[in-house]
Structure formats: C-alpha cells, structure tokens
C-alpha cells in the first residue's frame, strides 16, 4: 500500500519542552491508525504536530511524498490534513451550517453529505454553535473537518466526556468513515477497546516515544501490551 | 416642552446625523471586531479624504463623487500598508490603539502644515438643498449619506454572512489558530479587511467635506461618540454600527431639543454605560 503519511525521527513539543522524541511511523492510503497511551504521554502533541500547531524540533512529516513539517497549518490544511481537536473548538458565534461552509473546500464531502452522516446537524443547521450539546459539538467538529475534504483525518479523543448513547452514535459514524469510505485517519484514544475494532493498526506511546506498533487485530487478540502500557485489558 | 413638529424635525435631523456616526463607525467596528485592532487613525484618514475632496473640488473643480472614485482606491492601499506594519511587528489590541493614535496625531500635523489650521468649507449648490415632507425638512446631502451608509452596512453585513470569505473572517475573528488549522488564511483576509476599513473612512471623508466645516482639530470631534456607537452596535457588526449611530444621533438630537445642547453627549455615554453594566460580555 502506498504511504499517505510518513513520519521519521520526529521530536516536538511546546516552547523548549520536548514532549515527543524520535517518533516514526507510516500510514497507507485508506488506513486507520489508533494512537493509544495513558494521559500525558504525548498523544495530543503528536496530532498537534501533524497539524502544525506545536514546535517541531527535528524529523520529517511527509504527506503523499511531500514534506509538510515546515509548512504553516493553513497550508497543511489545504494539502489535506483535517483535524478534530480534543477541545472541539467549534466556532461558537457561527451557526452550525456556517461552521461547515466557512472552511469548506471542493470535493466529495459536500454539506448534504455531512448532513447525511450526522442528521442531527441538519436539524440544528441554523442554530449557533454555542447552543449545541457536547455530542453535537463533536459531530460538528468532525463534520467541519470532513467539509475541508481531507486526505487524512486526525481525531483527538472523539468520544471523551460524552454520554454512552452519543458515543455509540459517533462510533457508528466513524466506522462508516473508516471502513466503508476508507478515509485515512489517525485516532487518539485512551479507551483502546472502543477503537481497535475499527482501526487497521495501532501504536502505543509512553513518555513521548513509541513503545509498541502492531495491527489492531493482533492487539485485540493478544492484549499484553495494553495491559503493560495502559494498565487495561483490550476487551 | 417643544412642539410635536420640532420634536419630529429633531428626530429626523438626529437620525440623519446618526448616519454619519454609523458611516464612521463602520470601518472602526470591522477592524476592532474582526481583527482586534483599535484603529484610531480611521478618523484621521477620513479627514485626509475630506481635505483631498475639498482640495480637488475647490482647486481643480473635480466633483465630489469623482474625487471619491480617486481617493477610495488610494485609501484602500493605505489601509493595506498600515496592516502590513501591524502584521510585521505583531501589533496587539492595546498597542494598536496607541500606535494608531500616534498616526492620527502625525496626520493631523501633516494636514495642518499643508492646509493650515484655518476653517475651510467646501460650498456646493446642493449643500443647502432639502426636501420638504409635510412640516419637515430633509437635507438632501444627509439623506444621501444615510443611503450610502445603509448600502455599505447592509452589503458588508451580507458579505460577512453569506460569502465564504466573510464567514472565514468571522471564524478567524473568533479563533485565528483554529481557523488557520482548517485552511483559513486569515492574514490575507486581514489585509483585505484593513483596506476596506480605510476605503470606508474615505467615503465618510467625502461626506464630511460636503457637510462639515474642516479644521485639523476636528479629527477628534467625533471620536468619543463614534467609539460609543461602535461598542453599542457590537464590535464587528456593520448593521449594528449603523443602527446604533442612528439611535445615538436621534437621542442626542431629542435631548438637545428638550433640554439643551450640552446634554447630547450625556445620552450616548449613558447608553454605553447602561449596556456594559447590563451585559459585561457585550464587548
């Protein structure tokens, strides 16, 4: 499978603080990667570095063979990096529809298609972003990233802090995106059991370094690394 | 108590005078609300445009609308140049206030050096024309100003709400870093908006030349009330700026008719204080 993303020797952080060290992995077209690890091991920093909002010290990030590590976030977004930040950060003063259209770029993900994936957003299209529930904000954050028609979707703890029924709804939508639409994605999650079934591969971070890489199915079949690095079982 | 006719006339005159507040507030509101830059040089640019309109009209006999057609694009470029400076030196909200205040003082001096401190008046045959509607008189120039202000405010409001660029600007105003991560090049948009703000100042300046008596110190005459209008209309809201301008204009005019002229500023600033006390997040 051709590499969509190739990360080599990456170290990054904030200010002078180095959070990630010597991170290297590859992601093929249409592949989904789970990034696992305890709190504070650098999962969010990894996604933020791919987006371009942290400080990169060394290493390279190649998207579709092109080095993007030195580019500004807006340029990376233009090349196909779609981001769903942990805090969701929807534009609260814009309506639901405006949140989607303000950043939209041409491609298969039209407004109608986003609304088909998340019918709740269509119902609330005229409401302001500030009036949405946590789950709806997460749907909007994902929809907004899709509206940019990304080649690579980065999701930072998409189910965090949401009610179980909303988590089910979101996981169903993510399953559709990753398994049916074959959208390449990297998902940061603390709860391995939620996302291993819908990803192809997984890596575990520990203190800013990759300590394990394998197929998601292998990790589900043999959860030893999960127990060792996350202190949980995979089931 | 003044008669109903006098009050009606005061209301009409106030709303029309408020159109000028709104027109001046428009560019200021956009740069403050959407770029978080408080641009006091806006007033000086408006007066520079007014003096240029006066000069072109009195020395070269250029009609004011042709003068505006020449001055507005130049001002647009000046707005872009000013933003280049802000961008290069990463000027923040408070620093922008101080720097643009300094720009305005420098421009005031430049205007005074060239045109002197004398009062100047651009007389035209239509400057005193008015339409009679029942017992009321409606001055033609002020009416034209309000119509232009209305078209600009409404057009800008629609532009911000309906176009990709407008929505991207609003998104970037709320969270520039997040907007950038979604591909919004807010730096380019900020240049466009700064140019627009200066162009709006030039349009206001053309009307100032026709309606007001020009003197360099007059740059500061509208500052207080327009500041209040920008805030009352809500930062970054062009229709709000115009409506607030007309509301304040009308209130001032009624206060002057009922009490005495000295009461006029009390009204606008009392409304401002009341709004900010009622909703501290109004800004």
From TrEMBL, chain A:
Molecular function GO labels: ATP binding; ATP hydrolysis activity; branched-chain amino acid transmembrane transporter activity
Gene Ontology biological process terms, A to Z: L-amino acid transport
Similarity annotation: Belongs to the ABC transporter superfamily.
The protein, known as: ABC transporter ATP-binding protein
Pfam families referenced in this protein's UniProt entry, alphabetically: ABC_tran
Alphabetically ordered keywords of this record: Amino-acid transport, ATP-binding, Nucleotide-binding, Transport
InterPro entries the record matches: AAA+_ATPase (IPR003593), ABC_transporter-like_ATP-bd (IPR003439), ABC_transporter-like_CS (IPR017871), BCAA_Transport_ATP-bd_LivF (IPR052156), P-loop_NTPase (IPR027417)
Domain spans labelled ABC transporter: 5-232
TrEMBL record, chain B:
InterPro entries listed in its UniProt record: ABC_transp_permease, BCAA_transport_permease
Keywords associated with the record: Amino-acid transport, Cell membrane, Membrane, Transmembrane, Transmembrane helix, Transport
Subcellular location(s) of the protein: Cell membrane
GO MF term set: transmembrane transporter activity
A Pfam family this chain is assigned to: BPD_transp_2
Source taxon at top rank: Bacteria
Bilayer topology annotation: Multi-pass membrane protein
Example GO BP: amino acid transport
Residues spanning the membrane: 6-26, 33-53, 65-85, 97-116, 136-160, 189-213, 219-245, 257-278
Main location: membrane
Keyword Transport in record: yes
GO cellular component terms given for this protein: plasma membrane
Family, as annotated: Belongs to the binding-protein-dependent transport system permease family. LivHM subfamily.
Protein name (record): Branched-chain amino acid ABC transporter permease
Organism encoding this protein: Reyranella soli
Source species taxonomy: Bacteria, Pseudomonadati, Pseudomonadota, Alphaproteobacteria, Hyphomicrobiales
């Amino acid at each position: 499978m051709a590499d969509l993303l190739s990360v080599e020797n990456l170290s990054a952080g904030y200010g002078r603080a180095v959070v990630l060290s010597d991170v290297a992995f590859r992601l093929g077209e249409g592949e989904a990667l789970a990034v696992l690890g305890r709190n504070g091991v650098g999962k969010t920093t990894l996604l933020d570095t791919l987006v371009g909002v942290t400080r990169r010290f060394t290493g390279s990030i190649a998207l579709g063979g092109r080095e993007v590590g030195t580019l500004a976030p807006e340029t990376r977004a233009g090349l196909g990096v779609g981001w769903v930040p942990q805090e969701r950060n929807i534009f609260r003063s814009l309506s639901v529809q405006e949140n989607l259209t303000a950043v939209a770029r041409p491609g298969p993900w039209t407004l109608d298609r986003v609304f088909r994936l998340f019918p709740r957003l269509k119902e609330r299209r005229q409401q302001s972003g500030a009036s949405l529930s946590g789950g709806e904000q997460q749907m909007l954050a994902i929809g907004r990233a899709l509206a940019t028609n990304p080649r690579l979707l980065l999701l930072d703890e998409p189910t965090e802090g949401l009610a179980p029924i909303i988590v089910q709804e979101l996981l169903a939508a993510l399953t559709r995106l990753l398994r049916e639409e074959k959208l390449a994605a990297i998902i940061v999650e603390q709860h391995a059991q939620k996302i291993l079934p819908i990803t192809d591969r997984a890596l575990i971070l520990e203190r800013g370094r990759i300590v394990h890489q394998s197929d998601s199915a292998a990790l589900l079949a043999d959860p030893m690394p999960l127990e060792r690095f996350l202190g949980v079982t995979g089931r | 108590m003044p008669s109903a006719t006098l009050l009606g006339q005061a209301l009409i005159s106030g709303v029309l005078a408020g159109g000028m507040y709104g027109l001046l507030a428009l560019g200021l509101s956009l740069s403050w609300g959407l770029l978080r830059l408080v641009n006091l040089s806006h007033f000086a640019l408006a007066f520079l445009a007014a003096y240029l309109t006066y000069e072109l009209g009195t020395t070269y006999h250029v009609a004011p609308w042709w003068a505006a057609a020449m001055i507005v694009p130049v001002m647009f470029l000046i707005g872009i140049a000013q933003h280049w400076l802000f961008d290069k030196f990463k000027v923040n909200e408070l620093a922008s206030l101080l720097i643009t205040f300094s720009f305005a003082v420098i421009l005031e001096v430049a205007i005074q050096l060239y045109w002197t401190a004398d009062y100047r008046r651009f007389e035209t045959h239509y400057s005193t024309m008015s339409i009679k509607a029942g017992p009321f008189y409606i001055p033609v120039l002020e009416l034209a100003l309000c119509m232009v202000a209305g078209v600009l405010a409404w057009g800008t409001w629609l532009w911000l709400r309906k176009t990709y660029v407008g929505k991207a600007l609003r998104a970037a105003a709320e969270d520039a870093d997040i907007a950038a991560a979604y591909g919004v090049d807010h730096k380019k948009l900020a240049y466009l908006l700064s140019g627009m703000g200066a162009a709006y100042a030039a349009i206001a300046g053309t009307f100032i030349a026709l309606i007001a008596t020009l003197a360099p110190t007059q740059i500061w005459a509208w500052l207080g009330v327009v500041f209040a209008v920008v805030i009352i209309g809500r930062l970054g809201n062009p229709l709000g700026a115009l409506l607030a301008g007309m509301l304040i204009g009308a209130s001032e005019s009624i206060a002057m008719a009922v009490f005495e002229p000295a009461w006029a500023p009390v009204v606008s600033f009392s409304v401002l204080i009341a709004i900010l006390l009622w909703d501290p997040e109004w800004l």
